[in-house]
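Box 3.1 — From sequence to structure: Heat-inducible transcription repressor HrcA
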Amino acid sequence: MFQQASLTNRQQQILWATIRHYIATAEPVGSKALATEYDLSVSPATIRSCMGVLEKAGLLYQPHTSAGRVPSDSGYRIYVDQLITPSDSLGRRVEHLLADHLNFEEASFEAILREATQILATVSGYIALITLPQTRTTRLRHLQLVQIEPRRVMLIVVTDSYETQSVLMELPPLGDEMTQDESMMDRELQIISNFLNSKLRERSLSELASLDWSEVDREFAQYADCLKRLLTDLIRRTTAPVPTQIMIRGISEVLRQPEFSELQQVKNLVHLLEEEQDLLWPVIFEVPETLGLDRRVKVRIGSENPLEPMRTCTLVSATYQQGEVPVGSVGILGPTRMLYENAIALVETAANYLTGALSEPA
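Predicted structure (token representation):
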């Protein structure tokens, strides 16, 4: 895929203008339209040449020989990652709407999420999805690091339901003296195991990534990076959520978009949303690699979606948390020709708002 450094400023401007025009019109974009409607300070011929370069790079394509060009999934990816900024003004607007309409004192949390979903669908014009929070949390009962052979260690974890998980890891070179003395390695692994147990016992597995590694004595810092990667992998393998209800609003509105003109395509998408939420759940509820305040919005564009009915769509999603633990997710699903600046701002604002609400004392 093209990186930003591979595109000149002019190519970035023309890619941005092409995508903006296509989002607005749903019609293939020609060089004359861009020259007329955008201040690109170049001739239609130059724009046409640049669009040809972008097409060869796989960022644009022509649906028909005589037509203008439309963005590819790769073009949208460059646009989302490098050429736009989420709309702060829309984020503030939806935050005010959520504050005005969500009554946490009188309504059930399910009713609140239903209202929040409707607000997101109405403001975005796309399908809004919010999952009910998880109620089951797997907690750590015991953790042990065991040396299997030089520079090869097994992490064994026992949960509160007495399920056992084990993961192997390779240690980095630790110096000749340490690698030769297995008893010293065993002592160090026991010390680290004791430290991890004292910090993590009875905490949920989703909280493992929030451990403050600065508390590890300097002499054990060489293990920290390996253990962080190991614990992140363990979280992904062990915290398989139990699917719960997904609030969905906005289906009828978004299906009026020209991308959904094929009846079978519409049927497949509606069937997924209404009848196969067990398949949809893990796509929406995806625990990020880093937890805490550094939450990132996930944007899956077209073919990046794992489920076939969604591959003409974009899913914008983010988890909301209770404390440090992701318990649910907020998502917006629409055509790849969506207003990404708005969708990202809406999802991020709603996820942050629900996190704040769940973090407040009862």
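Summary of the box: The domain at 140-238 is CATH 3.30.390 (Enolase-like; domain 1).
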